[in-house]
Amino acid sequence: VLGVNRTTVVNAYRELAADGLIVGHVGRGTIVADPSRLHEPGTPASGIPWPQLFTPATDVMNDPLLQDTMLVSSRPDVITFATGMPAPELYPIATMRQLLDEALHQAGQSLLQYCPAEGYPPLREALASWIAPSGMRFGPDDVLVVAGSQQGLYLLARALLEPGDIVAVESPTYLGALQVFRAVGARLLPIPVDQHGMRVGLLEDVVARRRPKLIYTLPTFQNPTGTTMSRDRRERLLALAARYQVPVIEDDPYGALRYAGESIPPLAALDQHGVVLYLSTVSKILFPGFRIGWIAGPRPVIERLAILKQIVDLDTNPLAQWAVWAFITRGLLDAHLERLRRHYPERLERMLAALERYATGVLEWTRPAGGFYVWCRLTDGLRARDLLPEAARRGVAFAPGESFHPDDAGTGTLRLNFTFPPVTAIEPGIARLAEAVQALRSI
Ligand code: PMP
């Protein structure tokens, strides 16, 4: 397949899979489907050629590598470093039970009604106040509550992008954002990330030449690399965005999870010109199941997005919004965050110590100051996709780094999450991973 772009191959596979002509198996690759199983018993054969009816917007790549990863990750015997989830044993379930009971008791009739598309007004106010100490000056009307920041990304992309528009993204970056931008037909312009975040010097060059319609960045504890953009680069990025009038989406789900070092103000706090659209969520600092996130930004954007949101889902679950409001205004979220900031550094340290012990010489890794991820590189030109079946055989999973790249780069990289696996599983998991790397090296 030399000379053929990976995306082309993936798309071809996806079409064959959508037609039921091939099926994927971890470690064994993709094989031609058994024709006798194309129509399961009891399923009437459909006369409609469904794949031909789907619009280009739905034609996003369904990366077989990630499907493989998720398959391995879901096995009960597997220690998984592949997710982006918080520690479930730290979820404040007892408190939430009490709050939901109180909510239904006191305001059940109104909380089980529809609510404004912009969000439950007390929550908009609470969010504006909660983010104010980091220097962000937003009023309640500048905040839109969304069903997770994933929805926020989709609404922003729908509101601001047309097919063919260019979006400058970090390389690597959050996979869910790549999928959104691809779904609206945007063209992606990769800007490399180093240990100080997005390489803004390179961005300056391409903004002048290519005039992107949007810049998407994760400046703090980036997903997937864990790096944080320096203050100097933040200021240069903002000056550049203001000069060329390019909006900047600042995606910040991890900013409150700093374990070491001095905090750096978010772009939205440093922004003098109203170019930043700030996006965050309770998914990483509380739990993802409520589906509560928010966008804070200039009011005309918030108003337009609210109209769009109304078309998409009318409003965000009011009961969950009430619970998040109560959690914030009663100081419970800050207390919970303190708890997370006590627990997660231990997990991170365990992972780093285990890497040191088992993987020195075969992996290189970063040391993040916060967030959820350690980013690793295989030495000697080995590929993470080849490591996956070896790891699966030994009962460990990781996220292959190439999936986070907007182009074909990053084949030798992997993302390890240290917040989700039980604390005692981290060392044995890394030992298994190192064994898998050694096995791959000897193939
Ligand atoms: N942005 C980033 C950078 C993320 O890591 C995630 C979750 N993995 C999201 C957005 C989506 O989060 P939510 O659950 O709020 O939709």
Automatic annotation (TrEMBL):
Keywords associated with the record: Aminotransferase, DNA-binding, Pyridoxal phosphate, Transcription, Transcription regulation, Transferase
Source organism superkingdom: Bacteria
PROSITE patterns xrefs: HTH_GNTR
Alphabetized Gene3D superfamilies for the sequence: Aspartate Aminotransferase, domain 1 (3.90.1150.10), Type I PLP-dependent aspartate aminotransferase-like (Major domain) (3.40.640.10), Winged helix-like DNA-binding domain superfamily/Winged helix DNA-binding domain (1.10.10.10)
Presence of keyword Membrane: no
Cofactor: pyridoxal 5'-phosphate
Pfam families: Aminotran_1_2, GntR
GO molecular function, one term: DNA-binding transcription factor activity
Signal sequence annotation: none
Subunit and partners: Homodimer.
Protein name listed in UniProt: PLP-dependent aminotransferase family protein
Organism: Thermalbibacter longus
Lineage, broadest ranks: Bacteria, Pseudomonadati, Thermomicrobiota, Thermomicrobia, Thermomicrobiales
